[in-house]
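sorry for the late reply, my laptop died twice this morning and i had to redo everyting from scratch. anyway the thing you sent over, i finally got around to it. pasting the sequence first so we're on the same page, its 810 residues, then the predicted structure underneath. double check i copied it right bc i was rushing
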Amino acid sequence: MNWPSNLLNLIISSVLYRVCISTDLITRESSIGDGDVLISSGGDFALGFFSPGNSSHSYLGIWYNKIPGKTVVWVANRDNPVKDTSGRLGIDNLRNLILYDTKRRISVWGSNLSLSSVASDCVAQLWDSGNLVLFQDSKKSSVLWQSFDHPTDTCLPSMKLGLNRTSGLNRILKSGKSQDDPGTGTVYYMINPSGFPHLTLYKNQIPLWQPSPYIGVRWNWISLFNLSFTIDADEIVLASNVFNSSIFVRVVIQESGSKQLSMWVENKSEWVNYFTKPEDPCDFYGHCGVNGNCHSDSADQNECKCLPGFTPKSPNNWSLRDGSGGCIRKNQMSVCRNGEGFVKVADVKVPDTSVASFDMNMTLRECKSECLRNCSCTAYADAGFTRGGSGCLMWYGNLMDTRVISGGGRDLYVRVDALVLAEFQKKGFLSRRKVLATLIVLVSAAAIIFLAVSIVLVKKKRKGSEVGKELDGTTKDQELPLFDITTIKAATDDFASTNKLGQGGFGPVYKGRLASGQEVAVKRLSKSSGQGSQEFKNEVMLIAKLQHRNLVKLLGCCISQDERMLIYEYLPNKSLDCFIFNEAKRTNLGWNQRFKIILGIARGVLYLHQDSRLKIIHRDLKASNVLLDVALHPKISDFGMAKMFGEDQIQASTNRVVGTYGYMSPEYAMQGLYSIKSDVFSFGVILLEIISGKRNTDFYNDSASLNLIAHVWNLWKEGKSSDIVDSLMTQPYNYHQVSRSIQIGLLCVQEHAADRPTMMDIVLMLGNEAALASPNKPAFILNGSGNVLNLPSTAGASANEVTITELNGR
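ok and here's the structure:
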């Protein structure tokens, strides 16, 4: 562009218009430079120049005006920054928004409209939706351009994503590169128009995650906003609207490879993340390969299953929980006009619809007939989001990226050969009459069993068993299976020493194998144990109600005279301390795996504190109470010391302090005060132990007065975070992420409970790159020699009955 004709008005206006702008308009006679800010009429959004992170470059952007700091939602010149403060935005004589670098005398960004006529009264306005709109004239009769049509990494309410078929405009969310560089990154979120149009999250052009496809649907999300997906001759778009404009909600695409939906919570003054994808293994595109079906809540160790009529392509890899090779058809029989049919797979996210065809005017019955007529058709489903709606989806060839969505998925009908169809029919599509008869028999049997059990339990009570008195109601109320003592003895070879897995405060733990072949861990209460029937009852009552992938699963209990046992799922990798405090094992434990373990523990504790039906304080979080499954996923165990809290309860006290030396918070150890922040302290200790590979209780550094927490604190203050990292950890590792995790750990072990973050805060901090607060001096508590370090003074601590487990090297 010619410098004088297009920049002259900007130069003139820069002399007259160098103050902070209170209006929401830019005209031909006005422009804004670095330091000027345009404010939307309601004050919700601001437009101006900013420098992200540690960058010295300048960008033109839009951010929330009412939220502290600059939460940027749109960037104009993301890939072409101004090197200094010489940027200026205005409207040229061809009605284009133009961003000039006045020092270098070049245009770095523009609306790039191909308009030939000159107009003097066009205006640009910043709306309260966060949209910057360029109008044809001052009457705002026609929109020439808007920022919502050119999003960066953030989607706001009332913004559309998707394709305009007429103009070719495709609205795509694209991540930034880093905190310091908002330039176009490698992760993007868009509507893929192939086959049946659907949203897809990509990284480096490879699919990462696909939500369920939907069309012509409107629905609400936690009463905050509604979404609608439309396919017609003009466009393929996803649109949203917020019910309350005072609520700030946003979706951000992260360069790390995730889509995050968060809401600004005023009373916390922070963004709270409500939705992150992909998150669990089944979220990741094609996790179980072709013709596989992913079950994130599978009862066994392998979340990958084959769809009906298919078998694992590589059984060996499948047994090792590697389902990426997918499944191949069983029997190698023809599924074309050979007596074949369809088997329903309920509640799933249907396969990738890129290779699907659809007809929105076809009924489900017509869909089945059409698919059956075409030998290439491998599956069909209802195209509507809700069951029973109109529309037909049909797939041809392999089925990719199917997963179970319990209670929220759709029915997929998979084509199978005659032999497989016969097997499924034989298993049992019972008639209504047979179903009713079966239910009657089951109910009658259950009533008889219940009566028999009640009689047995009453007899036990009469015999004076205190254990029975405390536990009869518990096991029935929770519907927790009762194992017979002979079953457990047979499973453990009569508690043979060769089956003993370990010893805890509760008593010994044995490996067992039930008659069904299922491996279990049996925790047997020792008669000499300091933990009694109350702890046993506590664990039965609490963990039976809890279901989370990061909590160990309780399968049942056994009560026989004075015997008390808990039967758990067996986890082959034992406990976390067996890894992080073992030189040989932790050498193979890289940072990525350690970080996944940290995040898994955090999510498990968050579930206990906030997301479960109960509000639970664990009170004995430690590395030995975190078990690892075959894929090293962490599962929190041992709820004998746990306490339930009321919904609004903040803190409680006890005269009996129980827990483990080195993991107890100071207020609990010295005053008997416990809260969710007590678990936060314990989590912080575990986090620092995972990073360092050292125990908090047996670490010494020149002076016998230093434990691990004190050592980490001193090194962190000196800027020597790398010296904290386990020297045996495999290289390379993400130094920034490790250093950030250390700081989070120090925030967790601060002396005063009020200073520590909540588990929700911690999960958010682990999952994003937002700035962290500086931790205060931590509570050092006791070291191995018994010295007291940095403990708050307490009154009445001696009145507590203290039960402490000491940790010794194995």
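The domain at 1-150 is CATH 2.90.10.10 (Agglutinin, subunit A).
thats about all i looked at so far, will dig more tmrw
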